[in-house]
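User: Modeling request: complex.
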Amino acid sequence: MKRVLALLLLGLRALVLHPLAQLFTPPERKGKRRFLANYAPEALVPMSAGDRAELPSFSGCVNCGLCDAVCPLVGRGELQDWRGPSLFAIAYSRATPELPHLRAVIATLDDCGVCHACQDVCPRAVPLLAIFAFTRRKLAEVDAARAPAAELPPADERVAAAQPGLGT
Amino acid sequence: MHSYDLLVIGGGVNGTGIARDAAMRGLRTMLVEKKDFAAGSSGANSGMIHGGIRYLIDDPQVTRLACLDSGYIQRIAPHLLFRIPFLYPVLLERPGEPTLMDRAFLYGAECYFEAYDRYQPLKNGKAHTRLTDGELHELEPGIVPGTLGAVTMDEYGIDPFRLCTLNARSAAAYGAAVRNHTQVMRLLRDGPAVVGAELKDLRTGRAEEVRARCVFNAGGPWAPKIAALAGVEVKIRPSKGVHVTLDRRLSNYGIICKAVDGRDVFVMPHEDSSIVGTTDDDFYGDPDDLSVTRDEVEYLLQAVEHTFPAVRQARVLRAWAGIRPTLYAYGPLEDALSRDHRIHDHEKDGAPGFFTIVGGKLASFRAMAQEAVDAVARKLGNSAACTTHQVALPGGEAPAPEAQELSRKHGVPAFAAARISYRHGAEAERVLRAAEDEPDLRAVACSCEGVTFAELAFSLREEFAESLADLRRRCRLAMGVCQGTRCAGPAAALVADERQLSSEAALADLTALLDERWKGNRAVLAGEGLAQAELVQGTYYTTGGLRRGGGRPWR
Amino acid sequence: MALTTDVVVVGGGLAGACAALAAREAGADVLLVARAPGATAMSSGAIDFAGAEDDAPIGEAARKLARAAPGHPYALLGDGLVPAIDDALAFLQRHLSALGLSGARTAADRNLWLATPLGRAKPAALAQGGIAAGDLRNLAAREARLGVVALAGAQAIEARLVAKGLTPLLAPLCEAVVVAPDFYRQRGDALRTLPEIAQDLDRPGRRAALGASLGRAAAQAHATHLLLPTLGLQDPVAARAELERATGVPVLELLGAPPSVPGLRLQRALQAALEKSGVRSVAAIAERSSDGQVQIVRGVECEPVRAGSVVLASGRFLGGGIRCEADGRLRETVFDLPARAAGRDALAALPNERLFAERAAGPHPGLAAGVEADSELRSGAAFVCGAVLGGFDPARDEGGLGVCAVTGLVAGRRAARAAGKAGASAPAGVVRP
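Assistant: Request completed. Predicted assembly structure:
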C-alpha cells in the first residue's frame, strides 16, 4: 500500500511538480552552476581534463625520502613548515580539501626556484614540479570558489525543501 | 565477581553504540570485544552515513528516519564526517542517439532524486542537480563520453573506526567497563537464564567471570557463534563485500557505476584516498579468515571502468573484505536482501536475559542501539531517556581547531595538524598537549596520513589501543600510500616504550602489522605496488633483519 | 650525432657502477647512463653476499644459495662463484676506500653482524667504517657498555627499541643502554629525519658541538662505546675520528633504513669512483632504438649510442628495470627482454599463492621477478647484472648488494671482452663461464 502510494506520488512529481519546479528555477540555480555553488566552496572542486591526464603520474611515489634528502629548503626556517617535497606526492596532492590548511607550505614554493634536484633524484620519476603546480592551482581554484565576489548567489537548500514533495 | 546490568558482546558499531547508550542511561555496563573496536564488519564497509535513498519507494518513512539520524550523527561527531557529492551518470542503452527509454530513465531518475531532496535538509544535504553530458564532463572529464547526462545528490562519509572507538570511549566516560582483546569463553547460566560470562583476556591469558542481568550479543557475523554459547540459534545470511582502496582522491565526487551484472558499484572519495565497492556474495567460510581474490578485484575495477575509464590508471593500494550479517532469507539474490535489522529477545527461545541484534547498516547504528537498549531497559525497569542523539561524542563538543593555528601553537607540521583536527575535533589540543612535556612526540610517524607520535601516544593512553593494528584503526597509521614502509618500525618502537614491551614482543607486533598490510596488498600487486613491496621488503627484512629471530646468530 | 663507446652500461646503482668500473679496468671506454638513483641509494649501505643460518663463511653460504635455487645468479657463475666473490670483495675495497669500507677480505671469511634500526642483527660481508666497527660479534666478546645515542624525535624513540634489542644479543659481557645527549634543544628539532640530522652534522661547528654534548652524556652513562644513528653524509671517516677524539670512546654507526644515509653515501661514493676512473656518466633515460641499439633521451633530445657491448643494470621494480603492467604482464623496460617470475612471463598467469606467500616475510617468487640470463650473464644482446636479473630475493637470501657487485663485476669484464678489449686485469677464472 505504502509502495503504491509512493509510486503515485512519484508519478505526480514527474507529471506536474517537477515540470513546474523547473519552470520557476532560474538557470544559475540549476545544473553545473548550482552544483559548483553547492560544493566548490567546501573545496570539493572538479578535476579538469588536464588534471586527469597528469594525475596517474603523481601516484608513483614510494616514500623513499631521497627527494627530501637533497632538497635545499629542508632545514631552512621553521622545521615544521617545510618537511620536504615528498609530502606533496604522498600527502598534500591527494585531497583538495586539505589544501586550505597547507597555505603556508604551498607559499614556501615561492622560495623553491629552479633547482629541481628533488625531481632529478626521484627513483620513480615522479613529476614533483608538476605536483607542486597542481597543489597551487587547486588551492587557487578553492579560493576562487570561496571568494565573496563569486559570481553565484549561495545555493539555498530550502528552495528544494519548500517545494511540495513526496508524501505531501 | 563484578556485576553489571548489561554485558555487551562485540565492539563493532552496534556493540559500542549499545554500550554507550546503556551507560548514558545509567545502566552498569560492560563491553567486551575479542579483537578490537571496528576490527570486523564495522571497519570493512564503505564508511558512509547515507540517508537511505534506496528505501524511498518501499518505505519513505525509513528514508526519513535515516536522514534524521544522519543529522544526529553530524550533530554528535561533526568532525568525523565529510561530504561526498555523488554523480549518477546515465549511459546510453547503446551508442548513438539516445532512445526514448534513455530519456525517460534520466527523467525518472531526476524525479526520484528530487523526491529525496525533501529529506536532505534533515542532514544538511544539498538538493540534487541535473547535468547535461557537457556539464558532466566539465565536472568529471574522466567519465566515458556520450552519456545522456547525470543526476547528482550528496551523502556523507565517515571514519568508521573512529566512530566505534569514540562510542567505546564515551561509554567508558559514562562508567562502562570497556575491554577489547577480550573473548567470551562461555556464558554463565542460572537455570535457563543467562546471567553473565566467563571472559579471557587474549593478551595476558587471564580468565575472569562477570555477572550481568542481561547479555547483549552484538557479534555481527559472529552473532550465530555467540548465540550458540547460549544454546540458541540465530540465523543470518552472511555475505561478503570486497572493497579496493586507491591511493588518492581520483575525484572529489563519488561516481555511481554499473557492474557487468547490473549491480551498482561506487567509486568515492574517502578521507585522502578513494575506495571502490562493493561486491555482495553469499559467504560460507570463517569470518576470522577473509581474503580477496584477483577476480573480485577485477570485477570491481571493470565495473568502474565501464563508466569511469580513468580508474585503470589509478594506483590500487589494497583490497579488503568484510561480512554483512544480513537477515536470513531463502530465495532472494544477495543484493535484494533487506538491510533491515532485528532485535531478538531470546526469552522466547528459553534463554531469558539474552538478546541478539543482527542486520542493519552503519548509517543507522545510533537508532538501532537506541532500540536495542530500549528492549533491555524495559526488562530492567530503567526508564531513563535516550540522549545519544543530543550528547556529543568525544571531540564533537565544539568546533575542531583550525589546522594552521594548531600547527603554529604546537610546532607540528600543518598537514599533520589538519589530520589531527579531523580525527579528534575539539580534542585535538588535548592530543598535542603531551608533546609539550615530551618533545619527541611532536615528530611525524606516518607522513602519508599525517600521524604524529603524539597522536599514537594519545590512542595508546586514552583510546584502548594495545597494538600497531589498533593504532592503524584509530589513527590510520600505515593506511596511506606507502602502506607502512616508513612508519611501522618507528611506531613499533613507541608501542614498546608505552607498553614496556620486550624487543621480541614489539617486533612480533610489527610483524603482525606487516602481515596484515601484506594480506591486503597481495591481491592487487602490479605497477607501483610492486616497487612499494620491494621497498617494504628491503626496509624490514633486508635492512631491518626482522625475519631473523632475536637469538644470537653467530657462533 | 651518435655517442661512441666500447661499453654502455644502463643503470647507476651498485651493479651498474661495478660493471662500468670493471669494464674500465679492463681497458674499455665506458659510458654509463642512469636517470636517477635506484635501490642502492635506498639500501642499508652494507654489502651482503649471502646470509648464513649457521654463521658459515661467505663463500660457503653463497654456494648453498646457488645449490638451493637454480635460478639464482650465483648458480649461473658455476665454479667461478667463489673466486668472483673474492674478486668483488677486493674490488669494492679498492674503489670505495673513501667510505672506510671494511669487513671480510675473502670468501673464506665470515659475515659481520650489524646492528639494524630495529635492534636486530644483519649479516653482511662489508660495511662502511663506523658501521663495520659496530660488529656485534666483536662487541659481545668484551666487557662493554654500549651507549645507543638518542638525539631527537622519531630517532630517539627508535633508539630505545634498538637498545632493547641489542641487550640480549650482547649479553652477558656487554650491555646496551640509551644515551641522550643535550644536543638538540629546539622545539622543531623533534621533526628532524635522519638525513636532516646527517646534514646538520655536516655543517661547520655542529660536529664539535655534538662531540662535547656526547662526551658529557657518555661519561654520565659510563658508556664504553657509542652507537650513533648517523655520522653525517659528507665524510663519515673524518666525522668518526673527530667524535672519538671528543668523547674518548669508540664511536659506531647504525645501519640505515630508507631514507638511508649510508645508502646515499654509497651512491655518492660510487659516482665519485666512476668519475675518478674515467667512466663517462650521463643522466638520461636509456631506450632501445629502432635498430636495436641503445639511445639516450634527455628531455626532448634523443641521441643514439654506438657501443661494442651493452650492460643492463637497471634494477628491479624499485629501480624501474622491471615493470608489471596492469594486465599482469612482466616487462623489462629498456630492451623488452623476456622477464619472468616463477617461470612465467606474467604475474596474472599464476595463481596468487604461487607468487606471493601469505605472510609478509615471504618467500615471494613474484618479487624475485627479472630477466633470465645464460651462464655468460647474457640475455639477448645485453649482459645483465644486478636486480634486473631475476631469481634472487635479498630479503630472504640476505644477499642483495653482494649479488649486484659480483654480477656487475663479471658482466662488466665480459662486456669489455666482447667489445674487443681483452680484460687486462681480469683473473681468468672469473671471466670463463
